[in-house]
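Purpose: get a first structural picture of the assembly so the mutagenesis plan has something to point at.
Setup: two entries, given in the order below. No constraints added.
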Amino acid sequence: GESVGLHLPTLSVQEGDNSIINCAYSNSASDYFIWYKQESGKGPQFIIDIRSNMDKRQGQRVTVLLNKTVKHLSLQIAATQPGDSAVYFCAEIQNTGNQFYFGTGTSLTVIP
Amino acid sequence: EPEVTQTPSHQVTQMGQEVILRCVPISNHLYFYWYRQILGQKVEFLVSFYNNEISEKSEIFDDQFSVERPDGSNFTLKIRSTKLEDSAMYFCASQEWDGNEKLFFGSGTQLSVL
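Result (structure tokens, whole complex):
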């Protein structure tokens, strides 16, 4: 079946370093992707999105890269801060509907 | 900044009881969703709702579940007879228009079925 998954369940980085969180997806029909941040006890918070006609998109301190050839999505966080500690999910939407599929999540811990 | 609000934040119920989870989506949004997240697992789609009817639903959304938009602002999820395995965090989300547009999530209702 179709799946969205993350390579690493946990990631620890030093404050100030850059973080890279990866995501693999299996459905080549997916055409829109979102990265969400989820802090403990809260709902998913939108970070950045990218459409399948792009391979890179930048926001404030974050960059999303999309490699459709290998069905891989990554989130890069520059100068990681303690407030970035959270679980990060990638989500995909397939062009046949409006249902988002979420990955399992990667827990990012920023060490001061 | 507009946000999706959910009430209650926590709900404890006995197995077999009915629960209603409430959501107020962002006011100009047209598409509404319920997702759930069992502790430690990924966020799972339950149902989407547009123009006062269900547009998509997952296998999880069986006959025990129903959704309603009783007025112009509220969007509710009802579980008719709760089971232990319904214990999860339930998230409401809304979307301005369908397809490729970001979902805004509420903070969730933690449902505990005893």
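The longest strand of chain B covers residues 43-50.
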